[in-house]
Amino acid sequence: MKLQTALDLLSTADALKLLIGVAPYVDIIEIGTPLIKIDGLSAVRNVKAAHPDKELFADLKTMDAGELEAKLAFEAGADSVGILGVANDATIAGAVKAARAFGRQVVVDLIGVPAPHRLARIREMAALGVNRVEVHAGLDEQAIPGYNVVDLLKTVEGAELPLAVAGGVNLSSIGNVKNAGASVAVVGSGIYGAPDPAAAARALKEAIG
Ligand SMILES: O=C([C@H](O)CO)[C@H](O)[C@H](O)COP(=O)(O)O
């Protein structure tokens, strides 16, 4: 299982600073949606230039214009882009078309897809040529009392595509994510919000072996 650090930070400078200690322990660097909204695709360009050996995921959360948005991110250096699973199939197909043209990947984020519909939506994503799906409880959903990663994982048991898991994953829940057979554990606040982000990343990497 790969470890992905989600950089939901407010400047590229902060992201580059954090990565000095964190990058050695992670497989995938995610440029978070807030950072893309603040700094645009220059965040993708600058982080890729500093870490060319790492897979770079641009969390675009694209809802429309899939081919165009994916193409722009690939031109900036992204290896994979995040497209919303609630978008129209045509948007997802457009992103897949761009990914094939560049030899890159599309990750479909299932945020907002109701739990009972997730497995069927994953099957549709497989048919459209998507590379990976991400089951995702966003920051607002995580704040609802009673939320936990184990319940989130149950909603995608038997998924037919490689799975990324995001939603407050931390040292106490990353074992559940691995045992569920996930391909990627996405960790945002569990790394950037830790008192020592590099130590947190190292502990997470050691926990998954
Ligand atoms: O995608 C994310 C969220 O929607 C804000 O952009 C986060 O990167 C993702 O949830 C991972 O962060 P944590 O939940 O804090 O681990």
Automatic annotation (TrEMBL):
Pathway: One-carbon metabolism; formaldehyde assimilation via RuMP pathway; D-fructose 6-phosphate from D-ribulose 5-phosphate and formaldehyde: step 1/2. It catalyses: D-ribulose 5-phosphate + formaldehyde = D-arabino-hex-3-ulose 6-phosphate. Its EC number is 4.1.2.43. The lineage of its organism: Bacteria, Pseudomonadati, Pseudomonadota, Alphaproteobacteria, Acetobacterales. InterPro entries: 3-hexulose-6-phosphate_synth, Aldolase_TIM, HPS/KGPDC, OMPdeCOase_dom, RibuloseP-bd_barrel. SMART domains: OMPdecase. Residues 2-204 form the Orotidine 5'-phosphate decarboxylase domain. This is 3-hexulose-6-phosphate synthase. Keywords: Carbohydrate metabolism, Lyase. Belongs to the HPS/KGPDC family. HPS subfamily. GO terms for biological process: 'de novo' pyrimidine nucleobase biosynthetic process; L-ascorbic acid catabolic process.
